[in-house]
Amino acid sequence: MSSYLKKGIAVWILGFLTFLAALNTLHAVMLEALQYTESAIQLCIISDITQGLLGTRWINVMSYFGVSATLTFVLLGLTAIAVTRKPPLDPALVKMFVKLDGNLTANRKTVKDGLEESKKTLETARMDVLEGLDGNKKVSEKLLRDATKEIMGGLEQEGKTIQGVREELLSTIQTNVSSVRKETLAALGNQGRAIQNVERLNKQSVATAEKQMAELADMRTRIERIEKEFTPPQPKLTSLNNTEDVKGIGPRLAEQLKDMGITSVGELITTDPATIAENTKMSQDMAKHLQSTAQLLMVPGVDENDAKLLQEGEVSTIRELAQQDPLELSRKIAEIAKTYVQEGKITESEKPTIEEVLSWVKFARS
User: Model's pTM, two decimal places?
Assistant: First the structure.
């Protein structure tokens, strides 16, 4: 028989006996209320028991009440103990729990071993990834150094080529201008002498002579303009200039750049702005701005004010300048320059002309 069934039967029996004892206690209370306290009553159910114990079948009401109440409390306590007492565990359940605990222990050990193995695998993978990243970093640094050397070599070679072409062009232009100037001056001298002869011959031609003198002055102005047009403008910076030649780079910043190995404008332009910002106190945007200024100042005819106007016009590099439409860029710069003049940043004479903007674009494309 199941232990739970046995417990149920015991609780039922004890509960029933407790109920009967409680009824006897209630019966005693009723008798007492009816003033049977001093009387004796015969209990038919337990009369044989009282006969054997007391020698009589009659019992006092108060004794009846005491016995009933005591028996009620005793049976009630036994019922409570029977209700709260846990039945012994079923051996089958015990075996099942033992088996389940063994399985849990085995599973726990398996999981622990799996976690240890996963941890070792992750650590191995992490080391492999770190080694791969280190290798990639070294390869990237080598490629960056090689690319920088190649770019610097190309810039130096291009600078030498441009310098040679410039010197040859200057020599040719100077020779042509000198020849034209001599011829013009000779013609002017002859014309001046002719005018003087005319003045000596006829003083009434003063008006004519003044007109001719004005023409001579205009001719001199044209000659000076021709000389200016035939003499190409020089760039404010070259790739060989020191970094301090760039406006905005002071001695302290130049020293920080030198510690990075950047000593020239060319090296400044070809270095990654993020690398400059990481090794100096300037921001990445400031590094890009300085590189943009240096590039624009390498264009012949562009000065610091012109570079600011170009940057306001969203032109930051030589490549962007070469891609501009000259007339559209002139219109945009004229609007910006008008604002600069009103704010007092530049004078009216410092406003770039269309010819100057055309020359910037031309030099950027060459």
Answer: 0.40
